[in-house]
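quick one, 432 residues, struct below
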Amino acid sequence: MTESTGVLAGYRVLDCSIAMAGPFAAQRLGDLGADVVKVEPTTGEWQRHAAAGGAQGNEINVSFLSLNRNKRSVALDLKSDAGKEALRALVADADVFLQNYRPGVAARLGVDYETLREINPSIVYVSISGYGEDGPYRDRPGQDLLLQAMSGAMLSAGRHGDEPTPAGQYLADAVTASTAFEGVLAALLHRERTGEGQLVTVNMLDALTTLQMQELSVFTVGKKTQERSAEPHAHVYIRAPYGVFATSDGFVALAFADLHELGRLIGEPAFEGWNSEVEGWTRRDEIHAKTAAKLAEKPSGYWIETLGAAGMWIGPVHGYQELVDDPQIVHNGTFIEYDHPTEGHVKTPGFPYRFSKTPPRLVRGAPRVGEHTREVLAQAGFDDAAIDALLASGAAKETTDAPASASAPDPAAPAHAVPRTEPEPEPATVEA
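---
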């Protein structure tokens, strides 16, 4: 086992989550040095079998690869008594247990908080759900797009009468993952101070709602209704100009420009004498239309240089290639690169935080199914004979064969080399 030196070194996390929100939160803990043990079914976690955006891997699909670095894999059948007993042995010396099963599934499997706290009273138990542990929506699927639609966020941007537009990211899952990550850290800090473990519950609906702290307060406290404009304004609670505008060769994003100065620089005399905090609200559609007409006449680079030099907030609209190649991204080292034993050379987003003493680092890429089953169980006190018995009974699984040499994925190959032969507990949170 590779010794960790990160800020969370010495903490062990049992990651029983699937899909995106839970695994992403657990990966962040692993990036900071925690020993994250991914407990997955003997056929492999659901995400191993779901191609991301149609992208297929040699053995590990991109979705799983991107959300499960810095983890070890132990494969257990939690529907078997032996598999449950093995998990309980792992719980005994774990610090964090994380799951995102649908409400009620953890109890049926015997891995709910009340059961596990009897084994380890100091455990920090994190349960992630779509809508909450109880209530009228308890059993609804917590899918990203559905949560975005329900949150009200889609009606804070765009054109009146047009279809609401979802975010270009799995926003609800990502925000929930960050919220769970924060919850783990806070609970561990409490435990350091008091010795007490506790239950931490996080749900996607609350995470996405509280993210809109300013917008919803403008509505509930300021009594300003959520009214979209006739022009495609980027946010209903921000004055014009505010949005994305076409240029002669692409797009730029423009925000909060002083109307008088903007009119002078783009050659729009109508803005002369207008007050940004008055007409910026009352003539929002007109401002957008006139600005759009002028910006379309010249290329993006011209406007970024000209308006930016005047102190206006303007920037490029990147696609992914432009983002990856952006000099600031390159300078920051935002992406990390490494060689994976089955997936070849991998370039993927790295770490969103910096630590001067205990920086996050890449210890291992996403594991193969049960790659560390024997290692993890041995650390929990199982001898070779007991581990062999678990493997022979099917209650556990390990991957011991040498991986095929890494190469470029074959587009004609199946999405995963190991077919699913048994159902697993459904997640409470599933990305698009």
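The CA atoms of residues 18 and 45 lie 6 Å apart.
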